[in-house]
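Q: What changes when heme C is included in the input?
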Amino acid sequence: MARATIPVRVRWLATAALCAVAASGCGKTPEAVFVSSKRTTDMIRPVQSRVEQAVAENFGTPQNLYASLRLPIDYGTAEGVVKEGGGAGSNHFTYEWTKPETAEQLKKVDLTGAAFVWDSGPNTNVTITRQRKDVPAEFQVIGYHPTEQSIELSINVPDNPEPGDKFRVIGFGMQSGRRLYMQHCMHCHGVSGDGNGPTARYLNPLPRDYRLGVFKFTSTSSRDKVSREDLHRIIRNGIPGTYMPSFLLLKDEELKAITEYVRWLAQRGEFESRLNAGLKDYSKPAIDEREKKGESRADVEKELTKAATSKEFIAEFDESIESAFAGLSRDWGRADEASSVIHPKSGRIDPVADAASIERGRKLYLSDKTKCASCHGLGGRGDGPQTTDVQKRSDGSEYDKPGLFDAWDKEIKPRDLTQGIYRGGRRPIDVYRRVYAGIKGTPMPSFNTALKENEIWDIVNYVLSVPYNGKAPPALKEAPVATTASTAEE
Ligand code: HEC
Ligand code: HEC
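A: The predicted holo structure follows.
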């Protein structure tokens, strides 16, 4: 038996499949292109092309997507074996799914356009010649007939597949995620997930740009990414007080498919920004800086271009691709581990039984330990002094306007707590998590080291009392108060 080379990436959607898959036809998405981030387009030419090439090679284009199998993404994979080959040089065969529990479900799924990988048998290492180079053949499913149990491939097989040859079909889940995303989310969040779809310009706050890999309203600790469950919840419920709608009407499996596609877009964007992170010296702002200091722009560009085409640069760049994959796989994988989720050990303090809790929370809110009021204001209206001071970026430089800014370099206001609108959810545990971990990508800091658990619960009680003139919110008076961490979720 030939040893199967395990591919690191597979192609799972081609132009033809896209038109067939998107029920609305290709006409509706005429300019479906992935755009590069500004940080990439700010690089000198050879560096920009290198970054763009690395992203395209690992993630593809909207018409020709790649599944990087090193990422912790569930692309939707089916495993099967050949029942009878169609003959050498043919492109079809009959099959059987190896996992009986998914066989029924696979009858209802469209596998057209999904990637196809031989895991055993004579066709595992098929190569084709492209640009005078032998490259591994990229099989795709172009015909799927679940009633006859037959599959047609995009490339003819040189050898007749033998009964029992193993194969995988990869990417059908993502394909449905992508279709739903293009239908429901693209007009706000953009084809690339850059938050810049056609309707985005009219909205405030802007739709999320996923490409930093940063999400705000997570249940995870401040160093952790968003979990699948968080994304699923946000997409299902929407974000109150913003234009992010709720998608309650979608089926659970549809929400799962969209969630996975959003994770893929986020990891694609983060891959690009991780590559950029080490290349600041090659960017326009860095060249501007050197020009300001008296160097000749032409000389600087010449020097950088020479450096960027050196063997050392290319070797380092290839290493940075590897470490970007390692980092993405580690960080996004960890977000779904149970230990990443914030579960306070003690339950919520009952603000009615312990009436002093709200007052303790108020004092903490006004204290120097938290400085909540410096942003949210003494009365909680979101008008603290930090909103009129000039702030500094993480690199020490000052913003040219006073006020707070987020990770996307957009102005941002602390929440007006008198409104009682909580974007990340209004359950006490949601507010607890906001205070414990902060709001990622925004100036709202985390307080897990500054405050003890009971102090955070006091603050939660205070925050929830602000819209009610310092009294516990009426609905919560009747609600049973949780005594354990697990019931605190309800
Ligand atoms: C009408 C515009 C609009 C549509 C349509 C829309 N969103 Fe959003 N979305 C937003 C806005 C605005 C925000 C930012 C809210 C904020 O920053 O508080 C957002 C934020 C998000 C976030 C970030 C949550 C976080 O914690 O950071 C996710 C994830 C998201 N949207 C997913 C989706 C998905 C998936 C769809 C389609 C099923 C979708 N959105 C459709 C406007 C939209
Ligand atoms: C440096 C400024 C800053 C400080 C200090 C700060 N916040 Fe915030 N806070 C923000 C900003 C900005 C937002 C809005 C973030 C967003 O949703 O985009 C916010 C949002 C919130 C929200 C809304 C959560 C939601 O789900 O919508 C709450 C509640 C909150 N802060 C409470 C607090 C408390 C309590 C403290 C002190 C323990 C505090 N903040 C300290 C800036 C700050």
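Observations recorded in class: The mean pLDDT is 90.
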